[in-house]
Amino acid sequence: MAVLRSQRSHLNLHLPLTKLSNALPPISLPLLPPTSTAAPTEYNCSSSSAPISPADLDKIQVLGSGNGGTVYKVRHKETSEIYALKIIHHNFDSNFRRQLNPEMEILRCTDSPHVVKCHSIFQNPSGEFGIVMEYMDSGTLENVLKSEGAFSESKVADVAKKLLNGLHYLHSNKIIHRDIKPANLLVNSNMEVKIADFGVSKILGRTLDTCNSFVGTCAYMSPERFDSQTYDENHDGYAGDIWSLGVTLMELYMGHFPLLPPGERADWPTLMCVVCFGELPSLPEGVSDELKSFVECCLQKESSKRWSASKLLTHPFVCKDSTSEEQ
Ligand SMILES: Nc1ncnc2c1ncn2[C@@H]1O[C@H](COP(=O)(O)OP(=O)(O)OP(=O)(O)O)[C@@H](O)[C@H]1O
């Protein structure tokens, strides 16, 4: 307990910024025009089709809402194609009003089968932003877990491989997601799994970063994000996504949040003690050596000992019986 108290006394409780390395020049994206224009402004995310504007879409139902906005299922009037439309909440400052936030920038420039596809971004005359995305008809991995229960090892391996391909793509493009968890991973009926919700993500090297102080969801946060001084003050952020992936995959296999006993409240101090000072709970008996080893490679407390996404793609757990997947 004394050790715990002394460790706590020099904890950095306001979650410092990730230190940037490999800085790139800022990506130049156009500033959006002033909000007084009568027609919506549209940004096409796909090179092959015309931009979709709000007038092209009929709202069908609300799919969910979070801190960043509300997501609707919508139908394109002309093609009958179904999309997901995220309307970003309107409580932003005047600087934010005129610029794409990191989520929009990332969705606009990413193109991977493992990252949710953005078709179009627009701004209404009132200043409200909309993101037209591909519709993932099975919802989030969190929903799938609730309705179908714990995943088999082979299903966890399949999801792991798809997410690793997505993270490898993002990390190769200097993007850190910072909020990997079952609720931010979307699934469709083709059993595709895609990384979504870039609301707190970061593009390394950007000069503009509107989400510096945001911490992501603490339940899936790595030790260095709780306490960078003890764990690794030079962490680059990518390894934080790998930790969150490890917790997420354990959750899929065990059927409940793995770092606390089922039903225990995941408050910040309890989680910090478990993640930073406690021994991590092990996987249940009967689990294969490959899964055990894979999770260990993700959940190393020292971030530099964690495997990268590209190295994990070579781990026997994900490349047991299939050929390497394309990005
Ligand atoms: N492309 C999509 N296809 C299908 N459903 C989606 C899609 N995008 C989001 N959703 C649904 O809408 C919900 C809200 O999405 P949102 O991006 O606002 O994320 P959130 O994780 O709930 O919120 P926050 O921004 O606070 O993290 C999701 O939980 C999901 O159920």
Automatic annotation (TrEMBL):
GO terms for biological process: response to other organism; response to stress. Residues 57-318 form the Protein kinase domain. Keywords: ATP-binding, Kinase, Nucleotide-binding, Phosphoprotein, Serine/threonine-protein kinase, Transferase. Pfam families: Pkinase (PF00069). One of its GO terms (molecular function) is ATP binding. It catalyses: L-threonyl-[protein] + ATP = O-phospho-L-threonyl-[protein] + ADP + H(+); L-tyrosyl-[protein] + ATP = O-phospho-L-tyrosyl-[protein] + ADP + H(+); L-seryl-[protein] + ATP = O-phospho-L-seryl-[protein] + ADP + H(+). GO terms for cellular component: cytoplasm. Signal peptide: none annotated. ATP binds at residue 86. Belongs to the protein kinase superfamily. STE Ser/Thr protein kinase family. MAP kinase kinase subfamily. This is mitogen-activated protein kinase kinase. It comes from Cannabis sativa (Hemp).
